[in-house]
Recover the amino acids of this structure.
């Protein structure tokens, strides 16, 4: 390994697996500071959420595109102390920082986001940002200097300029780091981050499931007046404002139990649908946490042990060592508008 050749005293542990919602929390739990050098939104949301439910842990985030780079520290400016971990004490507000979801609660449309592979990157920019990230890690671990949390450093190599932007404070209503957040390691496991960020074939995948009879649960979040105009079937219909009620969660759980009883597929996709895809994106993480809480209150097992290893909605293994989530929450990016544009031109547009 090249890093070992550079410094043989460094302790380097390799993980020869793809980072996925099924393993992110268990991997991240073993470290004090996390450095995000990823190049796609789904991974950024996944790492952010895993860090939030595992501590929170300081998340040193860097990005580079074309001639520009950015760097900040999300969630916390120091690791939790041993005493804070043992007593389950929250991190003091003076040590808190906004998380990635505080700034971007809902991902932008997938077709508006470009990575290095699409837009390119000036080779020295990742090197500069990576060096700055390394400096932040050293400062966090040693307590030397001011950690760059709550601020975003922007490097413009085209004009050789740097500037710092002050970020907003942590959102009180953030779904993963807010005071009332219900996010948990299990809710991270049950979230399909690729579908949450809007995959290119989000509507096509649902169409395939409907055509082949692949087990899934489709939930339409539109108000009744819109459902009467047009609908997909078979489908459950729960207006957005009623989705988190116990009576509705009970109906969703009953539908899930029926699918699990008659199918060996794990996990069962629970697909949220709305007019344009905005409400369903927000509801995805809310439903995951609410359904887990409902199951706990009713003594239902959220992560049953299974003997087989199945494939989840995106084709990635959603379980390891026999432990698998039995449902995953996803949504149709673009909603029924995308369905009409991409799948069924005869479907009513309103």
């Amino acid at each position: 390994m090249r890093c070992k050749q550079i410094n043989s005293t460094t302790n380097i542990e390799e993980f020869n697996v793809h980072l996925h919602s099924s393993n992110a929390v268990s991997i991240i739990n073993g470290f004090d500071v996390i450095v995000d050098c990823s190049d796609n939104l789904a991974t950024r949301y996944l790492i952010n959420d895993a860090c939030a439910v595992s501590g929170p842990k300081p998340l040193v985030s860097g990005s580079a595109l074309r001639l520009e780079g950015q760097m900040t520290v999300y969630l916390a400016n120091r690791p939790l102390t041993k005493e804070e971990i043992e007593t389950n004490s929250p991190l003091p507000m003076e040590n808190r920082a906004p998380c990635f979801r505080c700034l971007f609660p809902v991902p932008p449309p997938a077709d508006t986001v470009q990575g290095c592979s699409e837009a390119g990157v000036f080779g020295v920019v990742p090197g500069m940002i990576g060096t700055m990230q390394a400096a932040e890690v050293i400062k966090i671990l040693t307590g030397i200097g001011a950690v760059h949390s709550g601020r975003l450093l922007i490097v413009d190599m085209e004009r050789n300029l740097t500037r710092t932007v002050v970020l907003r404070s942590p959102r009180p209503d953030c779904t993963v780091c807010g005071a009332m957040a219900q996010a948990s390691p299990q809710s991270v496991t049950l979230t399909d981050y690729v579908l949450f960020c809007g995959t290119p074939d989000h509507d096509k995948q649902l169409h395939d499931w409907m055509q082949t009879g692949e087990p899934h649960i489709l939930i339409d979040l539109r108000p009744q007046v819109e459902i009467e105009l047009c609908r997909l079937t078979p489908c459950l219909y729960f207006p957005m404002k009623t989705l988190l009620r116990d009576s509705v969660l009970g109906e969703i759980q009953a539908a899930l139990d029926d699918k699990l009883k008659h199918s060996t597929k794990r996990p069962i996709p629970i697909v949220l649908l709305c007019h344009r895809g905005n409400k369903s994106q927000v509801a995805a993480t809310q439903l995951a946490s609410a359904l887990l809480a409902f199951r706990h209150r009713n003594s239902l097992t959220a992560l049953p042990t299974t003997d087989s290893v199945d494939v989840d909605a995106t084709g990635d293994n959603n379980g390891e060592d026999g432990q698998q989530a039995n449902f995953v929450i996803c949504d149709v990016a673009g909603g029924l508008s995308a369905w009409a544009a991409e799948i069924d031109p005869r479907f009513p547009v309103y």
In short: DSSP finds 14 helices and eleven strands in the chain. The chain has two domains: 31-166, 185-342. The first strand starts at residue 34 and ends at 36.
